Amino acid sequence: MAHPLNRPQLVKREQAALPLDRALLIQIHELMVEARALEERLIRMYRQGQGFFWIGGPGEEAFNVPLGLLMKKGEGLDYDYLHAHYRQSATLLALGEEPIGALRQMKNTATDPYSGGRNFIGHFSKRRWNIVPGTSPVEVQYSMAPGTAIAQKRHGGEGITIVTGGDAGTAEGDFETCLNWSSRPGNQLPMLIIVTNNQWGISTAASTVQGCKTIADRGKPYNMRVKTINGNDPVTSYLELKEAMGYVRKERKPFLLEAMVSRLYGHSSASGANFVPEEPDCVKLYEQWLEENGVLSRPQMDEVHSHWSTQIAEAARKVRDEPQPTADSIWEHIFAEKK
């Protein structure tokens, strides 16, 4: 059975009482459409033999875009660190990343900015934005994230550590490690701990794995603030993320935020990457809300879809002819590089 927070329609509001600035609402839509076009192009590349594997975040744009827009972007302890998982492409785009990087990683080209063509899709990293390299083992980022948070606690300031993962991965010990290390009395850490709950592992329903009513409840024994929200609503996501980040920045204490999201194309290419029509589509829901509230018209939104579909298709054609990494480049981007 679907979680109740994963199903509601977006609340219609009068145009005079828009919850966010009109320009911001339009920006969020643009980024959500861009992210969806990117993920659908990546799936197409995989099916055309231009990549070995696909995993991504179509269905999570309504949460991941606001997350990127609200992050304090930069390098070093005064800025936010992101320990992300592999469904985070919309967050990277919201931070200002170009979509061609993900296309290059899918094609495993030497021009891949994240790993030089050596890693899976969705393994993003960027030192100058504090984007910590993603890893393939499930949810180990939860046990890694307290490291940057400890450094930020000692440093002071308003920089926080953000860690994201899926609901199935919270069954791993790394998640419990994160809850424990972030909440020790007198040593609480400035961490926003996020679980994007699409109610599935690879093929296992969360209802058969988790005994708690909501995953957010698991933070209560650690005396941290917790909340479960509708991650399919970008307005709700933006406002709730803003509040949670503000709390962590000011109080320097952890906050566990669970966002109920959709999984529109299954777990990954391992399960076929086929569209799941029963899942709520956050882009369609948001567009319905934008039209009903007079923010954008259907022709205006169709133009955004057409623009990003064309732009990303052109980028994919460019990537198709770029070279693969050479054998001697295997020694680059490692711990003891060229030694």
Query: What fraction of the residues are assigned to beta strands by DSSP?
Result: 5-15%
What are the secondary-structure elements, in order, as H or E?
HHEHHEHEHEEHEHH
Instruction: Tell me the helix content.
Output: 25-40%
Kindly report how far apart the N and C termini lie. Answer: 55 Å
Strand order of the largest sheet: 2-1-3-4-6-5
| Largest β sheet strand count, sense and barrel closure | 6 strands, parallel
Classify the secondary structure makeup into a structural class: alpha/beta
Describe this structure in words.
This protein has 339 residues and is an alpha/beta fold. The longest helix has 26 residues, at 22-47. The chain has helices at 22-47, 61-70, 89-95, 100-107, 141-155, 173-182, 234-251, 282-292, 298-320, and strands at 81-83, 131-132, 161-166, 191-197, 225-230, 255-260. Helix 1 packs across helix 2 and helix 1 (22-47) crosses helix 9 (298-320). Helix 6 (173-182) links the parallel strand 3 (161-166) and strand 4 (191-197). Helix content is 38%, strand content 9%. The protein has a six-stranded parallel sheet with strand order 2-1-3-4-6-5, with helices on both faces. The chain contains nine helices and six strands, in the order ααβααβαβαββαβαα. The chain has one domain: Rossmann fold, CATH 3.40.50.970.
